[in-house]
Amino acid sequence: MRYIFIGASAACVSAAHTLAKHDPQAELLILTQQREYPNNTCSIKHVLAGVWPKEQTFLKLPAHAQLYLQQRVVEIDPDQKMVVTHNGQVFGYDTIIIGIGTRPRVPELFKTYLHKGVFTYHTLDDVEDITKYSASTNITSVAIIGGGLSGVEAAFACRQRGLEVTLFEKEPKILSLESEDIQKNLEDTLNGAAIKMICSSKVITCTRDTNEFVLTLDTRVVRVDMVLLALGSSPDSQFLNSVTEMTFDGYILRVRPEYELHCKVVGDCTAQPRVHNGWSRALMAGKKILT
After folding, report:
1. If you placed Cys at 166, which of 66, 173, 196, 212 could pair as Cys (CB 3.0 to 4.6 Å)?
2. pLDDT in tens, 155-213
3. What does the buried/exposed string (b/e) look like for 82-116 if buried means 16 or more CB atoms within 10 Å of the residue's CB?
4. How far apart are CA 99 and CA 252, in angstroms?
């Protein structure tokens, strides 16, 4: 039996361990578009802060799993049971497990400078790009765009690196969905860490002036050396139309009935409420892959 995992998310890795125990002779092929080894994305903040080596975030794979990095799946032929990657490689399967995770949102005004001083904060690949750029450029200040959990984590991590940090949030409060007590405690902690906060203000333009980025807001102009985007994410799921039914924004509702026996979906790409304990739920989804 050959299982192909599309993605190297926590849910996929957990499912791979479950299937390896169930069928020790099974072929396990993990195809992922990321450059870095499968990792605990909840821990990449420690790598960004410079207190962990990236290897400390790596996930253990089943001993006989075959890992294919930088392999982006672009097509699934569920009738022939084949997947095709961006470079034309074709892999046959008996069962596919889809756990593609999500990709970060990048507003149009930042795209010109993406990977040129503007970076997303979403994966270990992103953290590697950020740290390499910081090491090769005289970075002293950074803007974090997005005051959700990822943005707050990135802000504290950059502050640990000794950077001057400004955290932007268009809503009136950081972590706007949390209770007032949590918001107040967080604001006190951010202030204690000397992290500047600009709320109720949206970045309108992003331009570059020599080595600085100039961010124009509703009421002011802010200059920084680097910009990190933490604006949420959505699935990169266009290639899954042949085997799944999806919501308008790309989350997977269900596998098409005719392919249910040979296709499973796990992790953040599914249409489900977003929760704080998403890591634990991802691991549990992998453990339940046979049910």
Report:
1. 196
2. 999 999 999 999 999 999 888 878 888 888 999 999 999 999 999 988 999 999 988 99
3. ebebeeeeebebebbbbbbbbbbeeeeebeebeee
4. 10
SS (HEC) of 232-252:
CEECCCHHHCCCEEECCCCCE
Element (H, E) at 263: strand 263-265
Q: Which residue has the tokens 């006989």?
A: 64
Q: What is the pTM of this model?
A: 0.91
CATH 3.40.640.10 is held by the domain 2-102+235-287: no
Q: Which CATH architecture has domain 104-229?
A: 3-Layer(bba) Sandwich (3.50)
Element (H, E) at 87: none
Element housing 261 (H / E): none
Q: How many residues does the chain have?
A: 291
